[in-house]
Structure formats: C-alpha cells, structure tokens
Design goal:
Layout: H1 3-12, E1 17-21, E2 26-28, E3 43-46, E4 50-59, E5 66-73, E6 76-82, E7 91-99, E8 105-111
Antiparallel strand pairs: 1-2, 1-3, 4-5, 4-7, 5-6, 7-8
The chain binds zinc ion (ZN).
C-alpha cells in the first residue's frame, strides 16, 4: 500500500492522517515520503482536528458552489468547504473527510461549538 492508499483507508474509518517528520516534529501536506526540510523518511500521524480559518472565498464553479476556506491544522494548510457563518481567524473543526471518484480528498469545516 502506498501513502495515499493508507491515508484513504483511514479516511474511510473517519481518521485524518498526514505525513509527519519525526525529526522536525512537523506535519506535511500534501503527503510526502520524505521531509522537505531534512529529507528524513516520514511516518503517518493524526491531524489534530482543530484549526484556524486563514482564508475564505466563494466558489462559483458549477456543482461546487459555496464557501471554501483554507484552515491551518497542526501547522499544515488544508482547503475545505465551509459553512457561510464561519469567519477568518475563527476556530474550526474538520467535520467531514471523504474521497471522491477522482481520488481527491474532500474536507468540510464547521465552527467550533462553544
Ligand atoms: Zn524533517
């Protein structure tokens, strides 16, 4: 199984993993077999399911209309679909992770419940 297959298999079970450099203690996304900074072989680690919304924009692409944003999770940036009420700098959670037929990872964010 390659990295992507392993990550996809975990997503099926509801766990979101990314590659992680044991030396730099850093997550990497998109997944990579080697650390971009020190070239150490990476392992897989859970992404902490709480992040901050950095950017928000609206997509007009047919079939994908809606808000999208970039979230910072454990130091990596992930693009996901957003509810319209989430604003930049707010704390977000990864509410859904799934894969589509084109082997892409689709992520949805929601606002943290206080
Ligand atoms: Zn490293």
């Amino acid at each position: 199984m390659n990295l992507k297959e392993k990550i996809f298999e975990k997503i099926e079970n509801g766990t979101f993993l990314s590659t992680f450099c044991p030396k730099c203690k850093k997550h990497m996304w998109p997944p990579s077999n080697n650390c971009k900074e020190c070239f150490t072989t990476t392992g897989l680690k859970d992404i902490y399911n709480e992040g901050i919304l950095l950017e928000k924009s609206y997509s007009h692409i047919v079939g994908q209309q809606g808000y999208f944003g970039i979230g910072d999770f454990s130091g990596i940036r992930i693009i996901g679909k957003l509810e319209s009420n989430i604003e930049i700098d707010e704390i977000i959670l990864i509410s859904k992770v799934k894969t589509n037929n084109n082997n892409k990872i689709l992520v949805e964010f929601k606002k943290i419940d206080n």
